[in-house]
């Protein structure tokens, strides 16, 4: 039953989830490694800060799962690798899924698998590959009882933003989120909208499927905390942040600050007290 694993992913107090993504090394971009050059050290720091989950790849999950004790964060396993994040796209693009992803997730005691659904300007073939990945993954997840997180990501042009900056256009985000739901997502990880006050429309279009908000590019603490507070008020079921934590001077403090907002209803100013100056 998927609910058994979802119960390990979502915090029982708030029924929300804070997942820290540190799977960036999968995508073969030098800039993505900042803050996680020593991933073992990074994972230890995050485990001590105790988010609900840490998102890792098959080659790095052991840093989390070999941690002694039963109270460590849950594992969310990244199942696909792509070459779509550079400022200049290569001549041939791909989004490939690892072999036997659900079986590998079971062996690693993951509570969820995550897969991308890209919308990249002028690159519909990558979307096609993503859909094929999801179509293969969905029946396996249902057969085993593994929750499926789909990550609908709307890119700005790679030349402008390096393929990793959020396109917060609501009219682009809504149909891609709905497509992810139609394809069978148990959880949605979606971009924030430029206008945070309309994020309730993203939550609404997902129906009963919980929406976790992607962090996107690095931003100042005040902006991140205030945005997160507003997103939770708009009905988001949690967050999946990466670079705004792992590239922070105080990743543990930033984790605790965000947890206070997501789980305790703290304001941005209240949460900021957890971060060391």
Key descriptive features of the protein:
single chain, 277 residues, TIM Barrel, eight-stranded parallel β-barrel, 10 strands
Q: Tell me what portion of residues adopts beta-strand conformation.
A: 15-25%
What is the CATH superfamily label? Aldolase class I
Biggest sheet layout:
8 strands, parallel, barrel
SSE pattern = HEHEHEEEHEHEHHEHEHEHHH
**What separation lies between the terminal Cα atoms?**
44 Å
- Our count of domains comes out at 1
Tell me what you see in this structure.
Helix content is 40%, strand content 17%. Helix 3 links the parallel strand 2 and strand 3. The protein is globular, with a radius of gyration of 17 Å. It has a single domain, classed as Aldolase class I (TIM Barrel, Alpha-Beta Barrel), CATH 3.20.20. The chain has twelve helices and ten strands.
Quick gist of this model?
The chain has 277 residues and is of the alpha/beta class.
Draw up the topology in text.
Blueprint: H1 2-9, E1 17-21, H2 39-49, E2 53-56, H3 62-65, E3 74-78, E4 80-82, E5 95-97, H4 101-107, E6 112-119, H5 124-144, E7 148-154, H6 158-161, H7 170-182, E8 187-190, H8 199-205, E9 211-214, H9 221-233, E10 238-241, H10 243-246, H11 251-264, H12 268-271
């Amino acid at each position: 039953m998927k609910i058994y694993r979802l119960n390990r992913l979502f915090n029982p107090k708030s029924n929300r989830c804070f997942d820290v993504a540190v799977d960036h090394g999968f995508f073969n971009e030098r800039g993505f490694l900042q803050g996680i050059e020593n991933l073992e050290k990074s994972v230890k720091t995050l485990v001590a800060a105790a988010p609900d989950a840490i998102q890792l790849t098959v080659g790095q999950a052991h840093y989390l799962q070999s941690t002694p004790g039963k109270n460590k964060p849950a594992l969310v396993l990244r199942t696909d690798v792509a070459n779509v994040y550079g400022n200049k796209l290569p001549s041939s693009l791909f989004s490939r899924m690892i072999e036997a992803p659900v079986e590998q997730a079971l062996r690693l005691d993951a509570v969820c698998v995550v897969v991308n659904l890209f919308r990249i300007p002028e690159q519909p073939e990558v979307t096609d590959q993503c859909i094929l990945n999801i179509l293969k993954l969905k029946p396996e997840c249902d057969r085993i009882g593994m929750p499926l997180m789909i990550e609908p990501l709307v890119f700005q042009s790679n030349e402008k933003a390096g393929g990793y900056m959020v396109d917060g256009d609501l009219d682009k985000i809504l149909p891609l989120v709905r497509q992810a739901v139609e394809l069978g997502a148990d959880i949605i990880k979606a971009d924030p909208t430029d206008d945070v006050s309309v994020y309730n429309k993203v939550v609404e279009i997902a129906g009963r499927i919980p929406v976790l908000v992607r962090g996107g590019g690095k931003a100042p603490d005040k902006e991140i905390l205030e945005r997160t507070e507003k997103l939770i008020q708009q009905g988001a079921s949690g967050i999946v942040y990466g670079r705004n934590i792992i590239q922070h001077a105080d990743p543990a403090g930033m984790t605790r600050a965000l947890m206070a907002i997501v789980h305790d209803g703290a304001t941005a100013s209240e949460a900021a007290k957890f971060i060391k100056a």
